[in-house]
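Fold this sequence, please.
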Amino acid sequence: MNFAVIIGLGNPGPPYDRSRHNIGWRVLDQLVTADQNKWSSWKLEKDAIVTHRTYMNTKIFALKPQTFMNDSGAAVSRFVIFYKVRLDRLWVVHDDVDLPFGELRSAFDRGSAGHRGVESITEHLGSQAFNRLRIGVGSNRAIGMASEDYVLQPFTDEEEQQLVGKDGVIAKAVDLLSRQLVSLTHEHKKEDGA
């Protein structure tokens, strides 16, 4: 059996639920909700809330670290090591203040650009050779707020409307992530000689 892991970055606790920093969790929630009958129930495992499903010959885990953002790497590395997941089969979904609101960008084997959750994962894994889905949450520069404070703020009502719904930013992120996972599972099928 092959493994793939999708990490949604965020902070635990109700005060952070709708913060910009928790967009990764919201993407995972929608990914799982879209095919809810195919995913297991969420459960606490190794400092993270985890669910999984099998697609073709690949077991796909969705994981929301329960450590705070700046120590996400601790939970991620324990999970990756335990399941012996190859890093090229790891996706990290996270907020990005350097991208305009709603813009999506995929990256592989790239630096953290100052994102402390990504820095923590890179440090704990000893590598940055994993996939990332960066989601633009707007810039703190226009309002003169420190980025570490800005990402803990909720989205504005107008931004929230653009995030949700069938054509919203979150749905587009789920679609992009789903297409990447389908491509990966087809690669696994070829590797397995099927």
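Residues 2-189 form a domain with the Rossmann fold fold (CATH 3.40.50.1470). Residues 51 and 129 are 24 Å apart (CA to CA).
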